[in-house]
Write a structure and sequence with these properties.
heterotrimer; A alpha/beta; B mainly alpha; C mainly alpha; B: mainly alpha; MetI-like fold; 2 strands; globular; C: mainly alpha; two-stranded antiparallel ribbon; 75% helix; flat
Chain lengths: 258, 297, 327
């Protein structure tokens, strides 16, 4: 694995079990800072479970056991306070999930929960987050309208703004555009390109064209015979798509199987 | 960060206590009522208390059999009068009535469910009792009695049974219905042979809930049942005139005398409460087992 | 109901097919031709018409009962209701002189007290059962056992009759704790009565909050407590309020439990330890101790109106919630 820059997130010999069932097997990979890494692979091979490990959302499931380390900027995330970790590692979900609150309150929610009380400061944060999410112009006159009243694409950008408002270092996106129409999808992709300047982004996607055009690095996952998921290949996107090491990668990319 | 975790832990414990409050209350109810009833059980003896048919506190006679019979008779009467009506209404609402009609009848039934019991009791006193007295010219019939009480009770449990039974019927998967129709059955046949059997445990649970409500009703009963402590017997050769008799329920026994009872008398009233409590728990446990059985069937 | 239309036309189509099948000589004549015969079909349909008529009768009977009881009492009671009736206190006596002002006040005090006691406890219990106890599934140890016991407790409590709560309150609050016949004793007893109602409706409301809200909040780095307080509870609020309104209705209607804990005085309660009389109890006392049936019906009429309003409020809240969710 060749990296030109800093490593933001390092995964060492990571495995995850749901009770007795192994869902992820011995993953070893590192993600470079300020780059976009996409994770591709067939359904059910554990991609979502994998990225949900980075902000320890899997902790919420009582039967989950993990082995190995995940290191964020030199610290093992399992030694960190999960609540603080989740501020540093943001997540955007597949289906947009704005709160049943106003647009302003949606974006201000995170900062408020972390102690920001001053109305002026909150307004600043809301505006800059909405600008960063390319939503400001569309909603600046209706900040007190419900977040649920927006279109699908706008809701997703609202969720991105909400995630940005707590100033994360790493942003995880779990198929962020799969529930959106093609135009909204394009907007999201453009947005991600702009965001990588300030954030490290890891994005799970089903859409190979999206991975090919939008990401710097690509990780390809597959399901083993015992139904656990493993990392098959990782590298710069161009290389993975034009000259993959592993035959399985080549098969998947050229569509020889789903 | 530690402060937030301490707060989280503390809240968790407090809320667990709140959740346990219900069972604590149940225990305390059982404890206190049983404790207060002990003197009566000890002095009078459980058998003579429960099976004795004379209740005359002034002569230290504390047999509640009459009240048990009274409660049972009035409940049976309420079931006989109320259940067919309730089920008919439930089937009507779930299967037959068009949406607009249902939109009128269902809220009406729900309204019935919320009306205070004393209001039903008052209606019974002012309308039903004189009606029964006038319409059935049997000597000894004063209108107050098991019949009036059964009618009032039937009206009271009607909404409960209707609502729950209707929900049970609506919950039957429409695949069953379609299968029946596809074999050429009429709607009625489908209802009788397919839907009702499938909704059986829900309907039975509804009826048992209604029975529970009937056994537990107090104030409305006191107002129309007469509260006589004599064992209810038919007035003439016709055994049905039994229902024209004035009687007393377990609940009525407690309410009518508790405010001035002392000593063993008061204790005997608590004993009445114990018997009632046990009766209700039996009824509710049966309901719960039946409803749970549905998930496997 | 759409149900209805398709079933009826379904049947009709089937019957027309059946007719064809009967006439077709392809199927050999079997002695069982009576299965699909015209007479059987007509008989079945006639039976259905009669029985369905009976079902309609029962439904209409239910409505008739409602109109009968409610209508009669409203009409009779209305004759007695006047501003005077509402604003003067009862004066007792065999004629039941006076109005019902003090009973209205007592009832209001009782409602407020009972709700104030039961709501935090009930909502808190529901929050625990939905938000925290879910993790216990499959685990072993003391706490999961406690959780099952807690649920059992709520179920059992819901089935206890009102008079038993009254007895309990009489022994514990009136006698043991020496509160005497008082608002305090009555509201504590009443709180026990409505606790299961609040727990159940709050549980439903909390369960209906989508999981995605919870995940969204936690993913932003909030604690579970923050998530519950700032996202889940506000979203579940309409359902919780419905439960509270339902309980208010119960307190208005309940008699047995207050009969034994409130005493029968018709004076205005001056403190938590004062006794009093609710409107529902006043109906009872008027009917049993006086000849003033008209005033009893007047009081009953007002109670009925209050229940109608409460029902309307509940329907309104539920309607608005389902409309906003449907979007």
């Amino acid at each position: 694995m060749s990296h030109n820059g800093n490593i933001k997130l390092q995964i060492d010999n990571y495995s995850l079990f749901y009770g007795d069932f192994q869902a992820l097997k011995d993953i070893n990979v590192a993600f470079e800072a300020n780059k976009i890494t996409s994770i591709i692979g067939p359904s059910g091979c554990g991609k979502s479970t994998f990225i949900r490990s980075f902000n320890r959302m899997n902790d919420l499931i009582s039967s989950v056991r993990v082995q190995g380390r995940i290191v964020l900027d030199g610290e093992n995330i399992f030694d960190l306070d999960p609540v603080d970790l989740r501020r540093r590692v943001g997540m955007v979900f597949q289906k947009p999930n704005p709160f049943p609150k106003s647009i302003f309150d949606n974006v201000a929610y995170g900062p408020r929960m972390h102690g920001v009380r001053d109305r002026g400061r909150l307004t600043e944060i809301v505006e800059s987050s909405l600008r960063s999410a390319a939503l400001w112009d569309e909603v600046k006159d209706k900040l007190d309208k419900s977040g649920l009243a927006l279109s699908g694409g706008q809701q997703q950008r609202l969720c991105i703004a909400r995630a940005l408002a707590v100033e994360p270092e790493l942003i995880l996106m779990d198929e962020p555009a799969s529930a959106l129409d093609p135009i909204a999808t394009l907007h999201i992709e453009e947005l991600i390109q702009i965001l990588k300047e300030h954030y490290t982004i890891v994005i799970v996607t089903h859409n190979m064209q999206q991975a090919a055009r939008a990401s710097d690095y690509t990780a390809f996952f597959m399901m083993n015979e015992d139904r656990s998921g493993s990392l098959v290949e990782y590298g710069p996107t161009e290389k993975v798509f034009t000259n993959p090491h592993d035959k399985r990668t080549e098969d998947y990319i050229t569509g020889r199987f789903g | 960060m530690n402060k937030a975790y301490i707060a989280d832990r503390a809240v968790r414990v407090i809320l667990l206590f709140a959740a346990l409050l219900s069972i604590i209350i149940v225990f305390m109810i059982g404890l206190f009522i049983f404790k207060e009833s002990l003197p009566a059980f000890r002095e009078v003896g459980a058998t003579s208390l429960i099976l004795g048919s004379t209740w005359r506190p002034s002569q230290e006679q504390y047999g509640i059999l009459t009240m048990i019979v009274g409660s049972l008779l009035v409940t049976v009467g309420a079931i006989v009068l109320g259940v067919p009506l309730a089920l008919g209404a439930a089937i009507l609402l779930a299967e037959i009535a068009p949406g607009r009609v249902r939109g009128i009848i269902r809220p009406a039934v729900e309204l019935l469910a919320g009306i205070p019991s004393v209001v039903y009791g008052l209606f019974g006193m002012v309308v039903l009792v004189p009606f029964i007295r006038a319409v059935i010219p049997v000597k000894g019939n004063f209108g107050f009695g098991l019949l009036s009480a059964s009618m009032v009770l039937a009206i009271m449990i009607l909404p409960t049974i209707t609502n729950i039974a209707e929900d049970a019927i609506r919950a039957v998967p429409k695949e069953y219905k379609e299968g029946s129709f596809a074999l050429g059955s009429t709607h009625l046949q489908t209802i009788v042979h397919t839907i009702l059997p499938a909704a059986r445990s829900g309907i039975v649970a509804a009826i048992i809930l209604g029975i529970g409500r009937a056994i537990g009703e107090t104030m409305a009963m006191i107002m129309v049942i007469g509260n006589a402590v004599e064992f209810p017997l038919p007035l003439n050769a016709n055994p049905l005139t039994l229902f024209l008799r004035s009687a007393r329920t377990l609940t009525g026994n407690i309410a009518v005398e508790i405010n001035y009872a002392t000593g063993i008398h008061a204790s005997a009233l608590f004993a009445t409460g114990v018997v009632l409590f046990i009766l209700i728990i039996i009824v509710n446990s049966t309901a719960r087992i039946l409803v749970r059985g549905e998930h496997y069937g | 109901m759409d149900n209805q239309e398709t079933n009826a036309s379904f049947s009709r189509r089937l019957f027309s097919l059946q007719h064809v099948v009967d006439e077709t000589p392809i199927i050999a004549e079997t002695p069982r031709a009576s299965i699909g015969s015209q007479e059987a079909i007509v008989r079945k349909q006639l039976t259905q018409k009669i029985v369905f008529g009976l079902f309609w009768l029962t439904g209409l009977l239910a409505v008739a009962v409602l109109i009968g009881v409610v209508g009669y009492l409203l009409v009779q009671g209305a004759q007695v209701i006047s501003l005077d009736f509402l604003l003067t206190p009862p004066q007792g006596g065999l004629e039941g002189k006076g109005g019902i002002s003090t009973t209205i006040i007592t009832t209001l005090y009782l409602v407020i007290l009972t709700i104030a006691i039961a709501t935090p406890l009930g909502v808190g219990a529901a929050v625990y059962l939905v938000e925290y106890a879910g993790e216990m599934h499959g685990r072993r140890g003391l706490v999961p056992v406690l959780v099952s016991i807690a649920r059992l407790g709520v179920e059992t409590l819901a089935g206890v009759p009102s008079i038993i709560f009254g007895l309990f309150g009489y022994v514990l609050f009136v006698l043991y704790m020496r509160f005497g016949f008082s608002l305090l004793a009555a509201s504590l007893s009443g709180a026990c009565l409505i606790l299961p109602v609040i727990i159940r409706t709050s549980e439903e409301a909390l369960k209906s909050v989508p999981k995605s809200y919870r995940e969204g909040s936690l993913a932003l780095g909030t604690t579970q407590l923050q998530m519950i307080w700032t996202v889940v509870l506000p979203a579940a609020l309409p359902g919780i309020i419905t439960g509270i309104v339902l309980s208010v209705g119960r307190v208005f209607s309940e008699t047995a439990v207050f009969y034994v804990t409130l005493g029968g005085s018709y004076r205005i309660p001056t403190s938590l330890l004062s006794g009093g009389r609710t409107m529902a109890l006043h109906v009872y006392y008027l009917a049993m101790d006086t000849r003033a049936f008209d005033k009893a019906m007047g009081t009953a009429a007002i109670l009925i109106l209050i229940i109608i309003i409460i029902n309307a409020i509940i329907n309104y809240i539920t309607h608005r919630v389902s409309v906003s969710l449907g979007r």
